[in-house]
Design brief:
Shape: globular
Bound molecules: tricarbonodiimidic diamide
Radius of gyration: 17 Å
Order of helices and strands: EEEEHHHEHEEEHEHEEHEH
Distance between the termini: 6 Å
Number of strands: 12
Structural class: alpha/beta
């Protein structure tokens, strides 16, 4: 397999020039807290079943990425058990009955080390795949993600995960400002709100790709298998 060359991937607003060896698959916050009942997502009043359609396409893309020997990074949103990295504003936002750090059916909500904070079994990280613990919505804020990508000379990101308009969008914007080209496969990102799914993707690819590109997992799988 030839992975040094550029492989065009169907995308909007125009084809993405994938350079597999310089591209990381970045899977954002596919945690039980967002995808399963009883976690942070549901505590905020959301229908968590809306996100489940992302699991199978992301699992297929992850398997193809791994089979091609390419770089995978996972992120998890969450806080230290003593909540010392939790801004008071984030703790009280939403006025929910159960908030970050409180006990829930999957342990303390959005706290590192708790069952709900873990990545879902279908997409569980393998040994050697970095897992970035992030306290915010963007994966670059208060993390070593940029340093890890720079050390591997990564310049492109395929960004999957949840939610499209919150952590995925924030991360794509942060990445764009740091000089990365981002491709978002729309079947591998999900929102609790169909309207926000559409708007979140439209914002990325508008204005000639102001923040990046939007494609599909099938195009990426074909591209990395064809080199
Ligand atoms: N609430 C919501 O849509 N998302 C988050 O709080 N975090 C992520 O998107 N990961």
């Amino acid at each position: 397999m030839q992975t040094q060359s550029i492989v065009p991937v169907t995308a909007e607003p125009y084809p993405f020039e994938l350079s597999p060896r310089e591209c990381a698959l970045l899977i954002i916050d596919m945690q039980r807290d967002f995808l399963e009942p009883g976690g942070f997502g549901e505590a905020l009043g959301n229908d968590v079943s809306q996100l489940r359609r992302t699991i199978d396409p992301t699992r297929r893309l992850l398997a193809a990425w791994r089979a091609a020997g390419l770089f995978v990074i996972h992120t998890r949103e969450g806080h230290r058990p003593d909540l010392s990295d939790l801004p008071p504003a984030k703790k009280v936002r939403g006025r929910a009955a159960v908030t970050i750090g409180d006990a829930g059916p999957m342990g303390r909500i959005l706290v590192r080390g708790e069952p709900g904070h873990d990545i879902i079994a279908e997409l569980y990280p393998k040994a050697g795949e970095p897992v970035i613990d992030k306290p915010g919505k963007g994966a670059f804020f208060a993390t070593d993600l940029h340093a890890i990508l720079q050390a591997r000379t990564v310049r492109q990101l395929v960004v999957c995960g949840v939610t499209t308009e919150v952590c995925v969008n924030t991360t794509v914007r942060e990445a764009n400002d740091r000089g990365y080209d981002c491709l978002v496969p729309e079947d591998c990102v999900g929102s609790y709100y169909p309207a926000f799914q559409a708007a979140g993707l439209a914002m990325i690819k508008a204005q000639g790709g102001i923040f990046g590109w939007v494609g599909e997992s099938a195009g990426l799988i074909k591209a990395i298998g064809s080199g």
